[in-house]
Amino acid sequence: MIELNWEGVYPAVLTPFKENGDIDFEMFAKNTEAQIKAGVHGIIIAGSLGDAAVLEMDEKFELLTFTIKVVNGRVPVILNIAENTTKNAVNFAVKAKQLGADGLMLLPPMRYKADDREAVEYFKAVANATDLPILIYNNPVDYPVFVSLAMFEELQLCPTIKAVKESTRDLTNITRMKNRFRDRYKILAGVDTISLEALAVGADGWVFGLVDAFPKETVAMYNHVKNGEFAKALELYRWFMPLLELDIHPKLIQYIKLAATAEGISTPYLRAPRLPLVGEEAERINKVIADGIASRPKLD
Known about the structure:
The structure is a single chain. This protein is an alpha/beta fold. It has one domain: TIM Barrel (Alpha-Beta Barrel), CATH 3.20.20. Helices cover about 45% and strands about 10% of the residues. The protein has eleven helices and eight strands. Strands 1-8-7-6-5-4-3-2 form an eight-stranded parallel beta sheet. This is Dihydrodipicolinate synthase family protein. Belongs to the DapA family. Keywords: Lyase. It comes from Sphingobacterium tabacisoli.
């Protein structure tokens, strides 16, 4: 197991499909290699952007086994947990450890909007069932559970809960977390369109979406910030913004798969109920992608 420090760039990687709906493992490996070559710090699989909602449980474990083989110890491999019941989430965490995952990203219970007490007990049950380090996904916009400061206060008792994917879209929440807990939790910003601002107020890294299509540019932007080269980071960020906005839409999977396909590191295929884009929307999104590729800045 590779030690996780929860700093840097962590792609929430896509799950490419073949036209018949099967997982395209060859293309998945190609994208993973592009991420690692660019210098990412870990790989998160079967997340929201990785089509967690339409992957069968066995497919998620098959993907984990395949990813571990492809990565071969170069970066940590983190498996997302998105289950409906506490029992299934616990069993999922145990199986992930057995198969060799280095860490877990943990969503709140799916389908049921748990209250604060229920969500905390769910998180605790999973955390107590494994010694794998856990990243709590705090995204009340897409998953209606808001993990509050009071809830994180309770979760401090769980040593395996190490970090939070901060996707509340409220930048002040990063400062509140740092003021309350100092370095108890590492914070990975999870919204592409406020990623630079998140680093400026103390985030330790990113869980990124458009890195799936543009790994070199994403890692370069992060490194510029860490090297104190803010003007260079800002130049990249301004170029990137129209593309980053593809991340904050219900069709982010369709959009980002198209961007990664344009870069030769994904396929555009989907599993229903998601469908390919048509008409004006297809023209608009493909133009955003084409314009971004045509105007991409030269990296140092």
